Amino acid sequence: MIQLIKNHFSENSESKANSKIRGYIQVPGTPVEMPFTFIHGAQPGKSILLTAGVHGGEYPCIETAIQLANEIDPAEVSGTILIIHPVNPAAFLARMQYYGPFDGKNLNRVFPGKATGTVSERIAYQINEFQQAADFFLDLHGGDIHEGLVPFVIYSQLGGPEVASQSRELSALLGFPYVVGSVSENGSIGAAAKCGTPGFLAELGQCGRWSIKEVEEYKVAVCNVLQFLEVIPGKHSTHEVQYLDKMLVSTASEEGCWYPAVELESSVKKGQKLGEIRDFFGVEKASYFAESDGIILYLVTSLAITVNDPLCAIGVIN
Question: What is the pTM for the complete model shown?
């Protein structure tokens, strides 16, 4: 990890034990400069990659990463921590949901990226290089501008049983109510798992807002993971969580107005109506139904909806 980071420092920026370096990582072939903090601990240990702001409208995670980058003392760290805050600065400044302003792509749907691809693909490629150099990967997310959600964590079931088991264990340490497995190959955690790096994607926050309370909750959760990994001092806590087998996402087949028929964290049965899309005259265009029993983990809250937008997600109970 240290050598890879050095490649993105200026020649006079040298990483030394018990140090903290701040700067910008230039994504080759793009105008993107990702703000980062690299914490080189006083003692040897694990290499941690922590990212936030893959999606520009997810604010609690971005503020959490900024505060952790400032508050973590390298003298108390064993190993290294690379924090990128945010990964997608142009999307953040444009207040965009899901997509990037340069190519209109969802960054978390193009991993592991391409060195010579579009801007989003090049960002993903750069993050994937850091994933390969890390021992553990923590990707912080939250309720986007148009999303309500209950706190939950996703871990990848790719990369083999050992990586999946470590990722599952780390996910539970956050203390969020639900932990769900994923087999997605084009997201951040799937890309990390496939190169042998365990980790998780965490979700906390509501509808493009942030609060001090949420940030404090997020910081405590992340620090609990870092304590378990013996990267920072302190005794970690264990938590009771509900494990979910997978997540089923319903997507819009029509554009128009979205009217959900369920609420966050409500239990649904297979075949139960989730909601409907109507036109601008209030006429129904399409209805959507649960594919399985489960729990509503997130729900799009905007009235406006376009084709292929997510509508809601069901966490399927084991």
Answer: 0.95
